[in-house]
Amino acid sequence: MHFYIEKRGNTSKRFTNSVYIISIILAVIFSSFIFLLKGVNPFFAFGKIMKSSFGSSFGLKETITKAIPLLIISQGLIVAFKGKFWNIGANGQLLVGSTVATWVALNFGPNHSAFLTLLLMFLLGFLAGGLFGIIPAILKVKLSINEIITTLMLNYIAEDFIEYLVYGPWKGKTQYGFPYTDNFPPSAVLPQIPGSRISLTLVIIALTVSFLIFLFIEKTKFGYEIKVIGDNPNSAKFAGIDFLKITIIMMLISGGLAGVAGVGEVSAIHRHLTYPAQISSGYGYTAIIVAWLAQLNPIIAIFSAIFFGGILVGGDVIQTSLGFPFATINTFNGFILVFMIIGNFFTEYKIMIRR
Amino acid sequence: MFDLIVSTLARAMVAGTPFLLGTTGEIITEKSGILNLGVEGMMALGAIVGFSITYITKNVLIGLLSGILAGGILALLHAFISITLNGNQVLSGLSIAMIGTGIAGMLGKSYIGIPLPVRFSEIIIPILSKIPFLGKILFIRDPLFYLAIILAIISWFILFKTRMGINLRSVGENPKASDSLGVNVALTRYIATFVGGCFSGFAGAYLTLAYMPSWIEGMTGGRGWVVIALTIFAQWDPLKAILVSYLFGTIDVLQYILQPLGIPVPILKMTPYVATLLILLITARELIRKHLGSPASLGEPFVKGEK
What we know:
Chain A is mainly α. Chain A is 72% helix and 3% strand.
């Protein structure tokens, strides 16, 4: 008797979905072992994560606050991943978006209306993030340079550059020596819903973007061409699809949306530029998992963004209450990703036993 | 000035060693056709396991071996996903990176700020260390420095001069042909991935046991990603890896050397990453022309019997 694998014909949506849910459950179990290893009762830890993120109205508001950037970024990542472009650089793209927005806020904001200032912040933030995304796109298509490395290196470069700005030339005069820029003028601030840190404008932007990306991928020729490039680059070349053009537009959107998320963070949440780690909160990396858990579907991404928003809030809470380091949540996210890939195997193949 | 050059290069040898260990390992893995992007995670795990086991046992050798094994074991997860399950190697590598850095951060929390009681310290090689200039740079080093170079040379020899190496490379070039010649593709790839992971674990353990004997979160600092770029830069050749790793060690050290000149620290911190980009850029055209030395089926799953 031995085992062998066979390709499945087609799999039902329900089967695929249960695979993803099982992945999450297994990730919880595996992370529990790590908690146990650290002498923390995993039921207590996960209970705390769930209670703090979804169990109270305060927690729920925080969850949504964090789901917003995750959703906007993951929409961009979905576009890139559909074209098999491994954009790991959303964190850096977010950071340059918030940097440019900060520049607009501090230099243009004081003398202009909120409408003009915010519009310019979002526009230039999108462009900055997009340009940061186009660099690896050109390098990949023109010189076959691996985009995973370039996007990652650009993350580090963006981080260090912002650190330089906030400790150096952009350090605010009114911030008592803290590495913050001056606070934004009122015209550059997105109002929050009272009693929360949620900005209604950002909620609308995030949902609109999700819907547009859905239409874009499913209904336009461009979306079709991205999928062809991703699924079968050879036949794409044969069909005369312009790789360079498509990849550049793809990464303009992908990086641009990360930039928009960055504008949202500085304008609605922080209201000044500060430590890069505080601005990006690792959203660029978490959004990768948001996109994959949504099976690269822009609408499902809404739900997976909220789920991961909750995980981040819970992560913050166990960080402060149990003294866990920031990286803790990486473990959990990594396990989710691992079990999703493993689960993917079962949606594509079945194991047969031959006697 | 002369002293400054000597001390810079001496420190560059230490800074380059983790790059060399990681790069050698990644070359072995990639030559078999498996792309493992999880180096950063395997390194982080190797670093904290090496540190904590040394701290507990007061024995650096046991610590080192544990760190090496930790990297290898984490790599086996990647092997299982990429080889047995034909999973997406990019995604799997990313998750390995997350899991490794995550677990390392958690395990390391209680060790922050605690100095290691024992470590690998420099040995002074008689006679050779008296050579002017080179003596201080090359022959007053910790034993792992020499081990790293020897391992790179051995890896080169095995890869390019032995039957085993031919099999491993053919599995990476053309798994189907190797399979029909009776080479066990899956087993070869498992071993190469495991060995590569051990090297990454070693690189991490080097950081905590020789480079800087204490633990801080984010200790690996992106070195694992630089390693993946160095693998390309070295054109999948462990001998070239020796050169590029120590070149990079020098770039890494430059940031501390230039600091007194008044250049802001964050700008200096950027140098390794900018250098990585520049190096990829400079070598890109040449690499395309030379057809990279990249294994032809890198990153592609091999399913026995499937067309």
